[in-house]
Every structure is written in C-alpha cells, then in structure tokens.
C-alpha cells in the first residue's frame, strides 16, 4: 500500500507531504502515515524546520467522514500528533490551498506559521455533520481569531475566503506560491530564533467580551435541542475562555465522542454520502466524461425558463432563450435584470458583473437559433400535444449529440423522447420549485447514461442537487408529496385543523419539516373540510392525537418510497432522501424519510400501516417493506440486486 504521507528532505529543510486523494481526508491510515513522517522529522536533527503540504487539488479537507462509523474510530491519535507538531522545537509551517476544512484547519492551527494561496477557502463544517470540531478546533481557533469569529465559523459551518481568513489572522500571509513562501518563512523563523507561536499557550484575544456571545449560543442551543452539537460547541468555547487548554481539550473530546453516536449526526452523515452517491450514474463506462456544455438553449420564457436562464447566466454559461411571444421574452428579460439588480443592491454583485451576466442571455423568437446549443431545456407549458410538437421540432433543429431536456412534471417522458426521434439524447427535468435546490432528472427508457451524467454535472455547476428518477406520475418527489397531501386532506376531513397538522409536521419533536402541508392554506379550508365531511358522511372526531397525525403523514410516504424503490423508479434508497431534504424541506438532521423510517424501525412502521389499513381500505403495505420488516433489515440498505 503506498504511503499517504512522507517526509521529503530538501537540503536542511523537511517537507511533510500528504497524498490521500481525492481531498486528502484524514483517514486513520493517513494519520498513522503523517505521524510516521513527523517522527522521521523529529529524529533528524539536521533539518532546521518543516513545511506541511498536500499533493493534489486541496490541502486536507477534514477528517475522513467514512471512518467515523468504525467502532474503533478515535480522534486521540490525531490530537496527540497535533500536540507534538505544536510542541516541536523547530518551526513548522502549513502551505494551504483549495478547501481547508475541519481537521485540515485543525492541522494548520497546530503549526506555527500558516501561508495560503489567494482563493483558498477555510471552514469548520463539522456542524453540518451534527458534530463539533474534534481535534482542538474549539480550543485553538478562538485563541487565534477570538471567540466571536470562532463562534461564527464553528456554529455557522460556512467557509470563508482567503482574504477574510487573512484579515482574521487565521492565516499569516497570502502567497501565489504558498509552498515556496512557507519554505522561506520556515528558514527565516529558524534563522531568527524568535519564539515559536503556540496557540495552546494563548488566551482568546476577546475573552473579556465573550460572555454575551456564549450566553446567546447557549440560549440558541436550548431552543434547538434536536441539534445537540450547538450546546456542545457553546460548552467547548466556554471552556476555551474559562479553563486551561487541557481541560478544554477534554470537554471537546467527550462531546465529539457523544455526538458521533447521536441520531442527528448519523443522519447528516448519511445525507452527505447520499448526495454524493446520487451523482453516480449506473452503466457508465470507466472514465466516461460528461458531454461538453458551453451553450444552453431554453425554449419557453415562462417562470421556469426564466429561472433556469438566470441560473445558467450566474454560472457564466450563455443562454439562447426562445419564445414565440414578444411579451413573454420582454417579461423574462425584465425579471432577469431585476434579479441581477437586487444582487447588486445587496452588494453581492458588481454592476459590471451584472451587466456581463445579463448579456449572456439572448432572447429570440426563432427555434432555429437553437441549432448551436449543446443542450436545450424545453420549458413550455404542461400540455402533451404542445410538448410533442415542440419535441418534434427540437429533434430536427438540434445538432447531433445535443441533449433535449423536457421539463415535464407529470407527463410521460418516454412519449416526448420518442417524438424527438433521438430518444437516447432526451430526458426529463423537474424542479420541485424553480428556486429550490433540487433538480430531478428523469431517465427515459432509452436515455443514454452519458446524457444523464451531463445533466447531473450541469446541475451542480448551477448549484442544484440532481437526483435521477425513472418515469412515473410525479417522479420521486411529487409522487410522494401527493400521498402526503392526500393524507393531509383526509386528516382534515376527520377533524384535525390545518394548524394542528402543520404544527405536528413542523415540530422537530415529530418531523421538523420547514413548512407543514397546509402552510399556504387558510381557515376557509377547514370550513370546506367540514362541509365535505358532512356530504360524504365522514364522522369528524372531536380531537385527533398528534401521534396519529404524525404517523398518517409520514408512514404512507415511506410506504410510497418503498414502492418507488421496488419499481426501480429510484436507483438507491438514499436518492429518495436527497430528493426530500434538498427539495421538499425535510430536515437533513432526520436523514430523509427513508433513513427516518429505519430509525423508527420498519416493524413499527409496518405495524402502524397495518393498523390504519384495518380502518381504511385505501391503505396497502408495500410488499418490499413488509419483507424487509420481517427480516429485520433496513430500507436504507436495500439494493436492487439483492432481491
Ligand atoms: C472533521 O474534520 C472532524 C474533525 O474536526 C476531527 C477529525 C479529524 N471524508 O464533494 P465532492 C469525498 S469532519 C471522506 O464530490 P467537491 C466525497 O465523498 C470533516 N470523504 O467534491 C467524494 O467521494 P466520491 C470536515 C470525503 O470538489 C469525493 O471526496 N470536512 C470527504 O464538490 C469528492 O467530494 C468536511 O465536512 C471527507 N471529509 O467538494 C468537508 N470530503 O467521489 C466535506 C470529500 O467517492 N467535503 N470526500 O463520491 C466537502 O465539503 C467537499 O467534498 C469538498 C470537495 C469541498 C472538500
């Protein structure tokens, strides 16, 4: 097995080079190799100092999340190594570039000097995994940049740019060649003999003013007990302010251990890997690359077409937007310019950049001008004869190899694909809402795998999470949402109020949805429900328990998810979770409906579905789910080839 880290001697300078593709994550094996390389440096007294750098596309992007599930996983070996690096009697510098995240920042903080490439990004994203930094990030970071700035980075989880990191003092200098600059800095420090800066020996510079921030963090954590990492971060930063480094280290270590096993962290780690797995397209030959996309066509200048055009322009992709109606083109142009102007007024975009992006979208009435497009998004209204007519025209106009993506939400993508005369190049796209982060990519019976790969790749270029679905009514998301909405209506007929239903759906104690199913509806809806119940002889109950509402909202959706899997509409159970967390406001800390079902236990879910099936004749338990429940297996672990 090749070493994931080695010590290279450059004359009297040591270079510790980490090489663990793709992102130099700190797997336990990598930590062992870094420790061995560092020991070699410690043993070689001819070396005046050390530079820690990485091969590949980035400095260390964090701990290896996949290893967190190993029962033997512990941060202790890495933390011990960091203490040795910091304690070294000779200068150690980190040469930083790419995405320096989590354990990568913690490694850099143990060094005496940090030099970064302009454009590098820095962050403590552990909170997005339901964790806190586990390798002294909560102790060294506030001692370097202050409690206030450290609290924002650690509790927010967002990364910052190199300029900001420099301004905060997180990095000492920016350099176009951070490796060379780090070597120079180490030599200079060795020659000057100046005391080395060891962060564990410092106090947070703003300790005296930190109380209000700590109190606010604790209050916020108390309001959100379903995210226990928040309280742990507050407690660890509190220790950084009030207690010696070693005690803070112990507070952080025990919190990290506890959080690793917490349901929220397990769920968030599941979503992390599910999102990445969703990008993998079965059937692609080894090394297949997505088709090149430089020029996009959008047919139909309605809301969807306009939103798509803005998204492409924001990603620096030029767009030809076609609509037969002058008024529609004018409306789209106004909406695009208004959106860009809002970004300028919020200081997120310069006037010049806005003008550039606006100029990337060109409107025309002529479909023939789509001949150069590498991909065309057809966004005309949901009307089959119209879609078929347009598909036929696009099949003729588009160049060979161009992809035709139809924005059907319920129509049969296979019929539309056939009408293009080139079904291998045709697929469907469906956004739960144009402004949401999800794009369902619908594979027709004949869609080529590389066409799917191209659109999934393009979606991530425009900041959307793509999930591939097979053809069925509503695809993955809307098909399950229909079941959810049906049960919402049935509960209202039975006597529940929209407020009670939304309350249960939105309460983190039950599900924690961003918005309940009746969110947008008014009290008039209840009056309607009463009238309908009377008309159909449904006996309304005086009160419906919250638990029943919870079960009736969630369990039929889970049941539908199992059907979607059994039919092969979704390739993987995790794909369904990604659809719901990225596009429908399902809380990521629940892991999505499938992961949540497993956490509840499939036996329980099936038993309750059976219970409701005895009361109502429109409930039918998915045979797949019943079989898995009987075997004590998890739906998340189900693979098509296992059946
Ligand atoms: C931590 O550090 C805790 C510490 O405090 C204590 C312990 C030391 N682990 O996203 P991409 C894989 S917690 C394992 O497609 P991009 C990823 O699964 C960690 N694997 O690329 C994918 O594999 P595959 C704190 C990881 O360019 C491949 O790398 N750090 C990890 O769009 C490419 O990833 C984070 O939370 C990892 N840490 O984005 C950072 N990171 O090809 C999490 C990536 O088989 N990572 N992989 O599907 C990211 O945010 C993005 O991956 C990154 C690159 C920005 C780095």
Describe the protein's architecture and organization.
With 643 residues, the protein is an alpha/beta fold. The protein has three domains: 5-261, 2-enoyl-CoA Hydratase, Chain A, domain 1, CATH 3.90.226.10; 295-469, NAD(P)-binding Rossmann-like Domain (Rossmann fold), CATH 3.40.50; 477-568 and 571-642, Orthogonal Bundle (N-(1-d-carboxylethyl)-l-norvaline Dehydrogenase, domain 2), CATH 1.10.1040.50. Helices cover 49% and strands 12% of the residues. It has an eight-stranded mixed β-sheet, with helices on both faces. Strands 1-2-3-4-6-9 form a six-stranded mixed β-sheet, sandwiched between helices. It has a three-stranded mixed β-sheet with strand order 5-7-8. Strand 1 and strand 2 (13-18) form a beta hairpin. Helix 9 (229-242) packs antiparallel against helix 10. The two termini are 35 Å apart. (S)-3-Hydroxyhexanoyl-CoA binds next to strand 5 and helix 3.
CATH architecture of the largest domain: Alpha-Beta Complex
What is the count of DSSP helices, taking H or I runs of 4+ residues?
Answer: 25
Rg, rounded, reads 28 Å
**Sheet with the most strands: spatial strand order:** 12-11-10-13-14-15-16-17
